[in-house]
Amino acid sequence: MKRNIFITLVILSFTIGSQAQIVKIDPLTKSVSQYDRSDFLIKLKGAWDNPYLQEEITLDMLVTTPNGKNLVIPCFYESGESGKVSTWMARFTPSEIGLYQYQFQLTEKGKRKDLSKKKYFYSAQSKLKGFLKVRDNWSLMFDNGDLFRGVGFSLCWESRINDDSKYFKNLHEIHDRYNYNYLVPLFSENGGNFCRVWMCSWNFPIDRKDNFNNNRYTPSNEYFNPSAVKKLDQFVDLCQDEAVYVMLCMGQGDVAADHNFFISKVSKERYKNRLRYIVARWGYSPNIAMWEFFNEIDNIQFRNSKNPIPSEDIVSWHDEMSTYLKQLDPYNHIVTTSISHRDLEGLNSVENIDINQKHIYNNTTVIPSEISKYVTEFEKPYIIGEFGREWDWSKCFDDFSHEMDIDFKRGLWYGIFSPTPVTPMSWWWEYFEARRLIPYFRGVREINDRMIDAGKGEFISVTVKAVDLQSFGVRCGNEVYVYLFNPNNTTAITDVEIDLPGLNNKYKGESFEPTTRVYYEMKNVEESEGKITLKGEVLGSACEIVYILTPQ
Fold first, then answer.
1. How many domains is the chain partitioned into structurally?
2. What mean pLDDT is predicted for residues 16-33?
3. Secondary structure letter of residue 203 according to DSSP
4. 18 — pLDDT class (breaks 50, 70, 90)
5. How far from each other are the two terminal CA atoms of the chain, in whole angstroms?
6. Cβ neighbours of residue 471 under 8 Å, at least 6 residues apart?
């Protein structure tokens, strides 16, 4: 009898020990603050062939906020073997002040296997701003109510081992200079607060094994490359330190974005698992401002020009993935995707894509009209995610460097005076850094912030007339801002007329020179009913000026 009892206990012990279960929960953040990251280390026992596939195994943190909202925070695998005790992590950023309840749920093959006991932590108030959300066409807003307009720049990748640029190969291959530890602080110091970066085979290649064309990454057979994951961890931390917000272009991962990618159930499930890992690992960060699915999806569509991928399949994929991402992401980050120059019917109307995006080269002049057109037609914000005087890297930009510089400058101001929440983002970051143009962002940021403060988020376009000049105007509260650019080869001398219906204030004027950031008092401000006239303004060829009119 005793022997039978002993055998039964041994069998029972073995059975319990082999079951999927949460073994231990260790909160690593001892003092939790609103809008700041909290880490949890979880030990569990589970079975899988691949711990990164949610159809095999998932760990979720179930959170109830002080206001009673229920959140599901996806967790991610760190280390360990199937059938043995493994290590998982949860990264959570609380948005509310007060007492939070949480527990962890372990699932295998879609069935819940274990649910931990309820635990609690208190989130204290902080001075952090939280996550960015769409406010309107002109601006974004933090969770705490502060307004934000991005002064943006492309910083899409760090330098590579081998670059295919004929004229700037050496520039692009300077590894100790064109890296994020140099570029991001430099950009931030000079007023930049928003950048766009890529996940691709040579930059943050989280699902690539080898052949990175970049010595920052180490070959690995892991499902997600540890060196790439660590590098993206460091980059997000760096952006937080420098107060720079990021549009993260996620791409398709280390697979071909062919027709099958957009229609295959297997391909879609693989991509959803990739999204789950990205959200679980980096979704906690308010400095990830936007998720971007693709860079220039229309160019992917027409890689095979004789047999392009049907637009409806690409649009359907974006609808499915954006819906999934919104359900998955507890922080509701802004979602976007981009085209080069060809619209896909229906793409701009996908419900869960918050901001539409286009890239413009060789035609910077049309940026204001393009923004206004798309905002009006689709009733959601529009961003110019790339722009430039030239896209063709086989040309020597030094042959027309002055034109490149002019284009870089005016594109930023077109954004400041247009209904877009982020300024157009210039390409060729290495080239413009080498030409010492990064300090130019200071003046743009200065006027940008002044506009926000003056209008408390109010941006109203006003009509400005200046013969032979490009002219733009915006009223922010009681202040009026005007931008003029002279595209001609001759100096312009002209009156500048600003329509202000219902004008009942006396205004004083000051001019602002964007490069030097020097203000000059204006003596030529004339007022009449509903109009302000700046008499005899002089503007040199390819020059620009900003006017600020303030009630006396």
1. 3
2. 88
3. B
4. low
5. 101
6. 464, 465, 482, 483, 484, 496
